[in-house]
């Protein structure tokens, strides 16, 4: 691997890593928004369905967000392997690699839902759903 390729891979890794960390911060913001939406819906005495819809929309939004983060993670692992192997493959191929492996619409939706159901994503949405149902059932 020549110095130019190594430098490109290093730059790509740094950029992807920073973006990966931003996804975590934004996901936390989505979770906090869900908590605030719950408090708002309870404070305004909104219907059960409206409260549930707020939570489900934000939960799915985080699932979509985490899916994009997972793509970044996958590319980070590829870049790390390229650096480790010191191959002649070029860096800065995140979008090209994504374009060649992009799933169809149904598979993309399945990927979003799968990421939304991961325990670190599902928390606190399951608890918020339980609170909404508990408040409106009683």
Secondary-structure topology with pairs:
Layout: H1 3-43, H2 48-85, H3 94-101, H4 105-116, H5 119-122, H6 125-137
Helix pairs in contact: 1-2, 1-6, 2-4, 2-6
Description:
There is one protein chain. The protein is an all-alpha fold. It has one domain. It is elongated. It starts with a helix and ends with a helix. The model has no long low-confidence stretch (mean pLDDT 88).
Radius of gyration, in Å, reads 20 Å
Please give the largest β-sheet.
Answer: none
H/E element string?
Answer: HHHHHH
Spans of at least 5 consecutive residues with low confidence: none
How much of the sequence lies in strands comes to under 5%
What level of helicity do the residues show? over 70%
Shape: elongated
> How many domains make up the coordinates?
1
For the record, give the distance between the C-alpha atoms at the N and C termini, rounded to a whole number. Answer: 66 Å
Total number of strands: 0
Number of helices: 6
Oligomer: single chain
Mean of the pLDDT scores?
Answer: 88
Return the structural class: mainly alpha
Structure in a nutshell:
The chain has 138 residues and is an all-alpha fold.
What descriptive keywords fit this protein?
138 residues, mainly alpha, elongated
């Amino acid at each position: 691997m020549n110095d130019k390729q190594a430098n490109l891979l290093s730059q790509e890794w740094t950029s992807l890593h920073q973006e990966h960390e931003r996804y975590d911060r934004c996901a936390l913001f989505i979770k906090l928004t869900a908590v605030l939406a719950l408090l708002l819906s309870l404070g305004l005495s909104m219907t059960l369905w409206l409260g549930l819809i707020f939570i489900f929309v934000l939960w799915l939004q985080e699932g979509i967000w985490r899916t994009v983060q997972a793509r970044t993670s996958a590319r980070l692992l590829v870049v790390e392997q390229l650096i480790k192997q010191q191959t002649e493959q070029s860096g800065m191929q995140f979008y090209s690699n994504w374009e060649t492996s992009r799933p169809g619409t149904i598979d993309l939706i399945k990927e979003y839902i799968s990421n939304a159901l991961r325990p670190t994503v599902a928390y606190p949405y399951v608890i918020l759903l339980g609170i909404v149902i508990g408040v409106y059932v009683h």
